[in-house]
């Protein structure tokens, strides 16, 4: 074998080894990213999420995305504005949902720290807002900013051409919130799409 052929073979082997190392490195990197995402986007409280997703006709991954965004799955979370629990309900919102559900005095705002009660109330609210506005993004904006505020936005042609979708969200914080919900939902669907289709 000529020296030139030997050099070509050696270069080819080195190139193959480098390609294999890069591929294996990329595969290991992709796997670690996947595992990290599963850690940061868990399926905690699945018995309650699935129960109330079915009861209210919601995509369970939307509920997971709201919990991830609102509290990071901390049932004892309290926001700067006083919202409580996994899905971060304010006391006035709690009172409104409680009235709508026709529940008695045995349920109090303290129960928003109970995962099942919080998910039940939050899921009811999310379902109501989705039905009311007819659009998930608009419902998300209302979950964050309130039904009255978002009702004004969708009535204003400067923000909504069709009275349903928000072409522009006038609040930077609300727009950021809607984006966070969508990102969390996309990650859930990416991670668990196989389970979703089964």
Account of the 3D structure:
The chain has 198 residues and is mostly helical. It has 2 domains: 1-40; 46-197, Orthogonal Bundle (Lysozyme), CATH 1.10.530. Helix content is 69%, strand content 0%. The mean pLDDT is 89.
Provide a short characterization of the protein structure.
This protein is mainly α. The protein is built from eight helices and no strands.
Write the layout of secondary structure elements.
Blueprint (H helix, E strand, L loop, with lengths): L2 H38 L5 H11 L3 H12 L19 H11 L13 H19 L2 H10 L1 H9 L16 H26 L1
Helix pairs in contact: 2-5, 3-8, 5-6, 6-7, 6-8
What is the N-to-C succession of helices and strands?
HHHHHHHH
Main β-sheet description: none
Number of domains: 2
Q: What does the overall shape look like?
A: elongated
Query: Mean pLDDT, rounded to whole units?
Result: 89
Number of strands: 0
Q: Give the CA-CA distance, first to last residue.
A: 57 Å
Question: What is the rounded Rg?
Answer: 24 Å
Instruction: Supply the CATH class of the largest domain.
Output: Mainly Alpha
Main attributes?
mainly alpha, 8 helices, 198 residues, 2 domains, elongated, Lysozyme, single chain
């Amino acid at each position: 074998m000529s020296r030139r052929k030997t050099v070509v073979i050696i270069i080819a082997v080195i190139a193959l080894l480098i390609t294999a190392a890069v591929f294996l490195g990329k595969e290991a990197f992709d796997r670690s990213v996947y595992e990290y995402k599963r850690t940061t986007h868990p399926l905690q409280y699945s018995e309650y999420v699935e129960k109330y997703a079915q009861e209210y006709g919601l995509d369970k991954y939307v509920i997971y995305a709201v919990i991830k965004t609102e509290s990071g799955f901390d049932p004892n979370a309290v926001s700067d504005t006083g919202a409580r629990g996994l899905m971060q309900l304010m006391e006035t919102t709690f009172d409104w949902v409680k009235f709508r559900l026709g529940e008695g005095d045995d349920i109090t705002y303290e129960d928003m720290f109970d995962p099942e009660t919080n998910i039940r109330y939050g899921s009811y609210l999310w379902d109501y807002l989705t039905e009311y506005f007819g659009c998930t993004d608009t419902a998300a904006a209302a979950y964050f900013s309130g039904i009255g505020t978002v009702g004004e936005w969708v009535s204003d042609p400067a923000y909504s051409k069709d009275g349903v979708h928000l072409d522009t969200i006038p609040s930077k914080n609300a727009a950021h919130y809607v984006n966070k919900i969508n990102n969390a939902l996309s990650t859930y669907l990416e991670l668990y799409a196989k389970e979703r289709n089964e």
